[in-house]
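Narrative of activities, Objective 1.

The group set out to show that a structural description can be obtained from nothing but a protein's sequence at a throughput compatible with the screening campaign. Below is one input-output pair from the validation batch, recorded exactly as produced.
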Amino acid sequence: HHLCLGNRQPFFDSQRFANNVMSINKQSSWSMRINSVIKEEANLAICIDIFGRIPLHYALLSRQCHDEAEWINGIMLLLGVAPETAHCKDLSTGMLPFMLAAVNNSKSIEMTFILLRYHASSTLL
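Output recorded for this entry:
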């Protein structure tokens, strides 16, 4: 359960995901770009790449969004589509999403606590 959704999910191209998010209208907010990409490929939020990461991991580690509220909104969009990803370990670092948020010290501590609550609620079930 900590190895991200088992082996049944297809791989995704993380570079293509990043390019798609960045290529959408530059006037759009970061969360609107993530929303557009997810709408095009609904199951993308639960796909893992060759590095053992899902889009949530990339969003948590992203330095592309400098607006804290936008960063949180984008992550909440990903969690809204696939809340189960809150307990998916990043296989590149061995960290869970709440840990990734905690080490990304340029962002809000609020996201660390949001993800910790998601993780705790999914492990208590």
